[in-house]
Amino acid sequence: MAKIRSSHVCQSCGHVAMAWTGKCPGCGEWNTLVETAPAPARSGAKRSGPKAAAGRPVALREVTSVEVSRLATRIGEFDRVLGGGIVPGSLVLLGGSPGIGKSTITGMALANLQQDGVDCLYVSGEESASQVRLRAERLGAPALEVRVLAENSLETILATIESEKPAVVVIDSIQTLHNADLSGAPGSVGQVREAANRLADAAKRLDVAMVLVGHVTKDGSLAGPRVLEHLVDCVLQFDGEKERTYRTLRAIKNRFGATSEVGVFEMRSGGLTEVTDPSARFVEEATGSTGSVVLASMEGTRPVLVEVQALVNPSELEIPRRVVNGIDRNRLSMVLAVLARHGGVGLGTSDVFVNVVGGVRIDEPGGDLAVAIAVASAQRGRPAAGRDGRPIACFGELGLTGDVRFVGHADRRVAEASKFGLAPVVGPPSGGNLPGMAPSATVRQALKTVFGGRQGRAEAA
Ligand code: TYD
Ligand code: MG
After folding, report:
1. Residues whose CB is under 5 A from ligand 2 (ion)?
2. Which of 10, 41, 353, 386 could form a disulfide with 15 if both were Cys (CB 3.0 to 4.6 A apart)?
3. What residue ranges line ligand 1, CB within 6 angstroms?
């Protein structure tokens, strides 16, 4: 039997067990034991008293500031989300569900970097070199210049990085790496964390920028990459529906830039193409029909118009269905409760479906009013359209008291909607008196603005 040199450490109480058990013998918590590699033995290390020399704290003013240089991948949306490009020696975690295009975007980025004379290495633990080549062929000739290493062994990968000294390395994916010191399967929390720790160490030591690709399931439940978020400099999340063509890339954490930036891509036959004007794409298809409204949302510093659709149907189930795509389910429950209580729109016996068109995900509270108007429109069977039949736009957060609340960048949202000729723009009154805007203090008033005087009070009963 192979000798196992690792131990299992409880993440909750620190109890060290020699074998994995479901329940920690120390504190009784379940599923907290994680396999951990032994710390490298230090010669003559005795754990008694502080033996290390004391450090010397200095005032921040005296710390020499370093100019952060960037390696531009020439994929504009990718660079923007990163804060201007890849920072040398930094660690980026790129998460996303399988099939979303993580290998594609990293392959494209490396192709561009290699073309610009930056030494790159693509480590594939998932696919064979020939499979990687097949993808590269679709991406074009420069992608074929990138060097590839099809390998799972963490030791081999580290040794290769050490000897080749590339400037940028992509590890695709972190869940496939295997450290022989640990008995756990690749992808287990222990393996993933150990691999990331060792890679992070190499990245800083050798000044190699690394992009770690990690699979995260839709609900983010997979423990693997989540445990790495504190370890890396930048966490990027690739979102979108696999079957749809639109993909959004957003920074969840970024030590070298803003976290609010979002890049929009479209999957085409030749790889991912940037969508530099997403509003045009999304609004083009908005028809102003019943159950549809345009949300003037902010994706980072950029206003984006997206269509929010709702369908309301009498339910055959005891507990009616609430199905969402692109918004949070709890957020819908809240909006429905506010609609029932303060908007006179009762949906207790109806199935409600809400969809954000194009596979876009709305992560800001400013989407509440759009959901409310789309649902109210669907329930009443009346379109939320302006005088010219074009869809109206809206934004705003809903308070539990039925008020429409302030959200940031009202001026830019309204300007974006006006640019595409959407009027009026229904939103919170605190945005100031912007031209083209119809301020509404409450959800009731907003519905009145959209659907006219008749409130349909009977529905409230
Ligand atoms: P991939 O990057 O392999 O996804 P991930 O690494 O996140 O699992 O690619 C995802 C999908 O994209 C795959 O089903 C094929 C498709 N695709 C295209 O449509 N066009 C292309 O040019 C490429 C390379 C892939
Ligand atoms: Mg892949």
Report:
1. 103
2. 10
3. 96, 98-104, 135, 138-139, 267, 269-271
